[in-house]
Amino acid sequence: MSVENTGTPVPEAAGRVFGDRVEIASAYVSLLEQHGVERGLIGPREVDRLWDRHVLNSAVLGECIPGGARVIDVGSGAGLPGVPLAIARPDLDIVLLEPMARRVDWLHEVADRLDLHLTIVRGRAEEREIRRQLSEADVVTARAVAPLARLAAWCLPLVRPDGLLLALKGVSANDEIERDRLEVAKAGGVDPEVRLCGAGLLETASTVVVIRRARPPAGKDRRGRGRPRSQLRG
């Protein structure tokens, strides 16, 4: 790994979140500082708050993800939250899904420069071929992608039954759940709730909406056709 160090101080919380991989996280921050604005990945005002507002905010999402999970990060963009998750949780099998070619190129560069084991796919969650290729994930993540109703319709088809959709949201997360509850249910989501990740680690904990994918009715697969109970996932 060869990344020019910009000299930005590493916050104390980063050592606790990333452990012995904090140097990799610091290199990722340096890449965003050097190239993020010019490549349209972040706004100019975000450069001074990359650690707290973006990288740590994303990495603590791992508190909601079980060990060894297969994760799809929808609309990965600059690599948030997927890249910080991959650094903090090398046990995860992470797919970065991004529709824009220039951002896909960036993600490949980041994976190569930081020696991260990531699968990078160009496409949108709502596309039929993407759903065929990437379905049955344990967890799908999304950050600043869309309102909850639209997000559920796009992302829940990628989640296995009893798997999770994790949406990083802001202070209005509870209001969004109430507003979009019916649409989330129609998309197959149940038990939406807000969790705070990084409490006690970060100055401002990350607000995450957690939605579980409902199981299909007993004796039917996800398209409604009957099949033996023994073939249903537990």
CATH level-1 class = Alpha Beta
Biggest β-sheet: strands ordered side by side in the sheet? 3-2-1-4-5-7-6
Domain module count: 1
Could you spell the SSE succession in H and E letters?
HHHEHEHEHEHEHEE
Binding site for S-adenosyl-L-methionine: 75, 80, 125-126, 143
Organism: Amycolatopsis marina
Family: Belongs to the methyltransferase superfamily. RNA methyltransferase RsmG family.
EC number: 2.1.1.-
Structure explained in plain terms:
There is one protein chain. This protein has 234 residues and is α/β, with parallel strands linked by helices. Helices cover 35% and strands 22% of the residues. It has a single domain (12-215), classed as 3-Layer(aba) Sandwich (Rossmann fold), CATH 3.40.50. It has 8 helices and 7 strands, in the order αααβαβαβαβαβαββ. A 7-stranded mixed β-sheet has the order 3-2-1-4-5-7-6, with helices on both faces. Helix 2 packs antiparallel against helix 4, helix 3 (50-59) crosses helix 4 and helix 7 (148-155) packs across helix 8 (173-186). Belongs to the methyltransferase superfamily. RNA methyltransferase RsmG family. This is Ribosomal RNA small subunit methyltransferase G. InterPro entries: rRNA_ssu_MeTfrase_G, SAM-dependent_MTases_sf. Pfam families: GidB.
